[in-house]
Amino acid sequence: MAPPPPSPSMAPPGPIHSAPGLPDTCALLQPPAAAAAASMSGPAAETPSAIQICRIMRPDDANVAGNVHGGTILKMIEEAGAIISTRHCNSQNGERCVAALARVERTDFLSPMCIGEVAHVSAGITYTSKHSVEVQVNVMSENILTGTKKLTNKATLWYVPLSLKNVDKVLEVPPVVYSRQEQEEEGRKRYEAQKLERMETKWRNGDIVQPVLNPEPNTVSYSQSSLIHLVGPSDCTLHGFVHGGVTMKLMDEVAGIVAARHCKTNIVTASVDAINFHDKIRKGCVITISGRMTFTSNKSMEIEVLVDADPVVDNSQKRYRAASAFFTYVSLSQEGKPLPVPQLVPETEDEKKRFEEGKGRYLQMKAKRQGQVEPQP
């Protein structure tokens, strides 16, 4: 167990402002004490309510077409969220903690990011419950040759504070000060909605992906893929648990393989449905990331990704489901234009059921984007 971080100045958290924009300039990622001292305006100090991290995209961040992997962007989003939520949870007197990722809401990839562009990842705290923190993140890409900037991603993440003395103990979150009462009420509604959705995903935890010999093209079995990874120190926090961003990057990699096998073209991540983290993954575990096609529309593919952890160095614990999510991919031509997607052929009753469920999610999101409400049966 690593020693706890330096104790920050004990000050009330800063107010959350109603303005949707986040800072345009890069914020130095200072330790909590330094950040609090920098904003000192009298006898009390305020913790920062937003941060920004920047990084240039390198060739190893992208696919063969030069588009940055969705998993790379998800990893940066999670890093920014972990920094600001951990800072906030340690902003008052009490037991030291680290913020662990519990859930990522639906994330849309609005525009591709390319090699050589600079990613600006801005994160701000928008709501806190007794035991969780909501963080909203925006990602901008900047072409440093032309100065052009564009919004590429918007995401909402939920974190819970885990004690440094006992990582199975969830601590209380310091409250935030809202500039408007409506902000707290809206945040509480989002909290209750995601809590309900997390409960609904648990029934799928026993589902597994089984290999099939000699599958036919365009079937679920033909494109399903798995990746086995031994969790090492570089994947983990100082406390021996896998970073949520590392897990999401591996999930996106497997989903991309499934999509490429199905289409045999260049593919990119279009969106990620809610990612639920059901349990922590410890250092030394062997994790199996499995992906399978669940639904296809004319121009998109939905892929379910499941993460199972096998604590091989601990005989007292059995294999368990650690995370699950749905990724949506699109097929692109060499010129970057959308291509028609080969239609999935579900064979078994379970595959047909998952196809109909995926179709329901697709129609619901399509209606939401058009500002419509789905009629009730």
Automatic annotation (TrEMBL):
Key words of the record: Hydrolase, Serine esterase
Stored SUPFAM superfamilies: Thioesterase/thiol ester dehydrase-isomerase (SSF54637)
CDD domains, A to Z: BFIT_BACH
InterPro entries listed in its UniProt record: Cytosol_ACT, HOTDOG_ACOT, HotDog_dom_sf, Thioestr_dom
Compositional bias annotation for Basic and acidic residues: 350-360
Region (Disordered), start-end ranges: 1-22, 336-377
Keyword Cell cycle: no
Pro residues bias spans: 1-15
Keyword Protein biosynthesis: no
PANTHER family in alphabetical order: ACYL COENZYME A THIOESTER HYDROLASE, CYTOSOLIC ACYL COENZYME A THIOESTER HYDROLASE
Name of the protein this chain belongs to: Cytosolic acyl coenzyme A thioester hydrolase isoform X1
Species annotation: Equus przewalskii (Przewalski's horse)
Lineage of source species: Eukaryota, Metazoa, Chordata, Craniata, Vertebrata
Primary gene name: ACOT7
